[in-house]
Amino acid sequence: MLEKYFKTPYENFPIYVYEKFLIPTEEEHDHTAKYCIRTFSHYKKTLNKYTKGYNFPIKPYGFIKKLAEKYNSILEECFDEKIYDKSVFTYVSNKDLYFDLWHTHTHTGSSVTAVYYLQIEEGKSPIEFEKNGSIIEYHPKSYDLILFPHNLNHRPTSKDLNEDYRISLAMDRIYQPQDKILKILENNHE
């Protein structure tokens, strides 16, 4: 069912891309970008001076709520399972403010992770994925949604960042049992 919505750009990596997942109006884009930057600015004050960026929780209202609802609806159709968590996080970065550390989302208890790119300069700042020692890069475009298993090692890179903000929204979703979802993600990809 994933193939109804997502393409798989790499043969050996369980990465699913839904291009132009949801395109905001200009007003929705500007309002959401300002909201993400404001939220990021508020939370980064609590970080120590050596930390340059991080994901921060964001309240899903307006365009973000519309985005989460569409994503949740597609996941429920694809996995035929009830979702247990519907949180949304924002990550804001530029050449002076970034945090490109390898990580997974296993600590969240999620089964599947998605990253929606509200704003990114095309061809710049790829997201990297690592599996069994192999690394690939994917160059997302604005309004793309990338879906992958919670345990896939990845990082947003700081390559080619400039003074403009790269703004993404991450959505972790929890399913029980997790094994079923992971098997779907892996098997759909072989």
Structure description:
This protein is α+β, with helices and mostly antiparallel strands. It has one domain (2-187): q2cbj1_9rhob like domain (Jelly Rolls, Sandwich), CATH 2.60.120. The chain has helices at 26-44, 63-79, 178-187, and strands at residues 16-18, 55-57, 89-93, 112-119, 127-131, 134-138, 145-149, 153-156, 166-173. The strands form two sheets. The protein has a six-stranded antiparallel β-sheet. A three-stranded antiparallel β-sheet has the order 6-5-8, with no helix packed on it.
What's the average pLDDT?
87
Q: Please, how many helices?
A: 3
Q: If strands are numbered along the chain, what order do they take across the biggest sheet?
A: 1-7-4-9-3-2
Tell me roughly what share of residues is in helical segments. 10-25%
Biggest sheet features: 6 strands, antiparallel
CATH architecture annotation: Sandwich
DSSP strand content:
15-25%
* Count of individual domains: 1
Question: What is the β-strand count?
Answer: 9
Q: How would you sum up the global shape?
A: globular
Oligomeric state of the chains in view: single chain
Residue windows where pLDDT falls under 50 for at least 5 positions: 49-53
Using only C-alpha atoms, the radius of gyration works out to 16 Å
The CATH superfamily name is q2cbj1_9rhob like domain
CATH topology: Jelly Rolls
